[in-house]
Amino acid sequence: MTSPKTARADTGKPLGEFGRIDRYFRPLASGFPGARGLADDAAVFGVPPDQELVVTTDAMVAGVHFFPDDAPGDIAAKLLRTNLSDLAAMGAAPYAYTLVTALPKTVGEEWLAGFAAGLGEDQARFGIALAGGDSVSTSGPITLSVTAFGLVPKGGAVPRWGGRPGDRVYVTGSIGDAALGLEIAYGTLEVADDSARAALLGRLRRPDPRTTLGPRLVGLATGCLDVSDGLVADLGHLCEESGCAAVLESGRVPLSNAARSVIGDDPARFAMALTGGDDYELLFTAAEHAAPALAALSAETSVPVTAIGHLLEGPAGEVTVTDAQGRILDLPTRGWDHF
Ligand SMILES: Nc1ncnc2c1ncn2[C@@H]1O[C@H](COP(=O)(O)OP(=O)(O)O)[C@@H](O)[C@H]1O
Ligand SMILES: Cc1ncc(C[n+]2csc(CCOP(=O)(O)OP(=O)(O)O)c2C)c(N)n1
Ligand SMILES: [Mg+2]
Ligand SMILES: [Mg+2]
Ligand SMILES: [Mg+2]
């Protein structure tokens, strides 16, 4: 069903709530009939009979998740991608999303135009459409939330709690870039090499959700989640839910060239990489016999998959981090906690 509505003409006057929806958000919903042209009270969409809907919500607040003066297109990309990362962690393919914007009255149309353009680019990149949302004003900082809907074969969603003692622990891509990028953004880490600096800041601002690899883990991974709070903290979450413990061999944790050069032999920076979060890589477990299939999947999708440890019987949630010599590495924290 398509909406009879089209964007209003530009009259030069402030657009107001509905004018903004018309101009900036309606075009993002045009490819998705269930959005009903953003002209109805709600969206309506079905699910193919052999699939299930996977639903995830994440919010972002200026000053907490991004800097208030970050480019609006980057903010949009991070907002959508962090949610796509949660879909990937469930083994779900992107389908549709809803958007809540709570904006201070000082946020103008230039910001909104950049934000909507960023959403549009990523919608095309990841194959997802806007289905609806809400627009409110706030006397606080910019606050944004996306609810993402994904599709997974019935019964196939990969749980956090499927890990079993003896399983290997794997991570995609590389870890720590965003955490180092955050230190650069705060001005607490000096990086002279421009390309390393740009690479680390880039991973902070525009994470790379593993939307292609995630759905391929259905039936292969025993447990999975995405790394948002920090590698050690999130492995702890998987272990808590799986009722077991883990050993994380820190010497095996994949680092980008930029991260490796910035970390050097500084243990504090290495700890930052292991616990800083914002990675949006997939952290998953699989039985030992799945190793050849995972190697083939990694080659096929061009997404690095690295074995970094294993699960074992032990107190639920306990993560022992070892160094390259097998000694226990003491970390100041496991990861991000909002409270
Ligand atoms: N305010 C809330 N109301 C309901 N469920 C919540 C709330 N906050 C978190 N959760 C749920 O708690 C679990 C852990 O949340 P979270 O750590 O944010 O997961 P993730 O890192 O994947 O976003 C998720 O299942 C999430 O849906
Ligand atoms: C300005 C700024 N300060 C700090 C951070 C770091 N940071 C903020 S929240 C967070 C954890 C992930 O966010 P959360 O809301 O916990 O996402 P979820 O775990 O629900 O996916 C991190 C690492 C940041 N990205 N930007
Ligand atoms: Mg969350
Ligand atoms: Mg998650
Ligand atoms: Mg979190």
Automatic annotation (TrEMBL):
Transmembrane segments: none annotated. Its EC number is 2.7.4.16. This is Thiamine-monophosphate kinase. Signal peptide: none annotated. The gene is thiL. It comes from Azospirillum baldaniorum. One of its GO terms (biological process) is thiamine diphosphate biosynthetic process. Substrate binds at H65, D278, W336. The lineage of its organism: Bacteria, Pseudomonadati, Pseudomonadota, Alphaproteobacteria, Rhodospirillales. GO terms for molecular function: ATP binding; magnesium ion binding; thiamine-phosphate kinase activity. Belongs to the thiamine-monophosphate kinase family. ATP binds at G133, D134, R160, S228.
